[in-house]
Amino acid sequence: MNDVTATNEWSMTIAERERLLLAPYAMHSVDSAGRVYPEPVHPYRGPFQRDRDRVVHSAAYRRLSGKTQVFTGEMGDYHRTRLTHTIEVASLARTLARALRLNEDLVEALAMMHDLGHPPFGHSGEDVLDECMPSCGGFSHNGHTLRLVEVLEQRYPEFAGLNLSREMLDGQGYRVRKQSNDQRPLLEVQVVDAADSIAYDSHDADDALELKLLTLGDLAEIPLWREAAARVRGLYQALSERELKQAIVHELLVQQVNDILKHTWQRLAELRPDSVVAVRAAAWLVAPGAELAEQKVELERFLYQRVYRHPKVLRVRARAQEQLRIMFQGYVQDPDMLPAGFRSRLAIDGVERTVGDYLAGMTDRYARRQFADHFERV
């Protein structure tokens, strides 16, 4: 058997397996629109497996371990980083995808990619870069994710970026544009969006409790949390406060996943989509029911007011933002301070975009070290 025959047989095996396991409205590997730079079919990995592997082996993915989700490392070491949040989103997304008979490889790859573009210090860092870069269109982590995988990651001699599938690029592009026209994203993209919401609604509350920014009594004001707590207390007696907190967070995750699956199955049963084309022409399908959606809005409003705007969080945020502003201005004024790889991009991208790219790639710790080494006034 020659290599071409073996490759063709393996490709047929992947297609056949997906035909048996996936719903007709899922994104099948055989229907992929391919890549910007065409590549041969891999002998034993489907296109979306390759996408996932390319993301996981990227420098940008590794750096997520040192980037803030909500709380910086100086506040403790229990809470989520951008990497652990990403892994949790991928776990939830795969659960939803398997239940809905979607393409788990594509879902996992999209989840692993979705936050690659976050700069140091979370959304506070993103706000500073957006403020500093008006002349080149501002900065958003979703847009920077695309820039990383299409341009900045340099892992292959044949092309810039990771040369991900068009389904990956289109999925992340939806997060950038959030278009409201009649073209909806793939269900795999919708699943990752839902999993992201489940993760941060549940885990930001968990982290805030661990850091003592909130108490269980504070969260009892919120219907979604209060109902989950009532179910937990009905199942277990005499739990310690830590056991109770962990059980409630678990119940929140289960409740949201169950609700999303219930209402998504109902929508699919009513629509009966028989293809990706039918999904993209339909209304948004992967979402909770109206009651849970409203409860999630209440929880998110509470978290914004009581956690994200907490004085301790704001103090850390303000200090980090000021350091990033000083660094941005310093590198713009003296771009010779940039590493050689970034200096080589100055003529292509201009100084502000290049400095923004450099700062966005930093971990929290590296940003602090660079500030201390080059900009801190003694």
Structure description:
It is a single chain. With 378 residues, the protein is an all-alpha fold. The protein has a single domain, classed as Hypothetical protein af1432, CATH 1.10.3210. Helices cover 65% and strands 0% of the residues. The protein is built from 19 helices and no strands. Helix 2 runs parallel beside helix 5, helix 4 crosses helix 9 and helix 15 crosses helix 19. The longest helix is centred in the last third of the chain and has 31 residues. The N terminus is likely disordered.
Show the helix and strand layout.
Elements: H1 3-21, H2 47-56, H3 59-63, H4 82-100, H5 104-113, H6 122-132, H7 141-152, H8 166-177, H9 187-210, H10 216-219, H11 223-235, H12 241-271, H13 276-281, H14 290-308, H15 311-333, H16 340-343, H17 346-349, H18 351-360, H19 364-374
Helix pairs in contact: 2-5, 4-5, 4-9, 4-12, 5-8, 5-9, 6-15, 6-18, 7-8, 9-12, 9-14, 11-12, 15-18, 15-19
In short:
The chain has 19 helices and no strands. By secondary structure, the protein is mainly α.
Pick out its properties:
378 residues; mainly alpha; Hypothetical protein af1432; 65% helix; disordered N terminus
Which geometry do the CA atoms define?
flat
Give the strand content.
Answer: under 5%
Question: Number of DSSP helices?
Answer: 19
Main structural class = mainly alpha
The whole-angstrom Rg is 22 Å
Give unreliable regions as ranges: 1-6
Number of domains: 1
Count of beta strands: 0
Q: Supply the CATH superfamily name.
A: Hypothetical protein af1432
Characterize the main sheet. none
Between the first and last Cα atoms, what is the distance in angstroms?
70 Å
Query: Which percent range fits the helix content?
Result: 55-70%
Q: What is the CATH topology classification name?
A: Hypothetical protein af1432
State the CATH architecture. Orthogonal Bundle
* Secondary-structure element series: HHHHHHHHHHHHHHHHHHH
> What would the average pLDDT be, to the nearest integer?
92
Q: Would you state the CATH class? A: Mainly Alpha
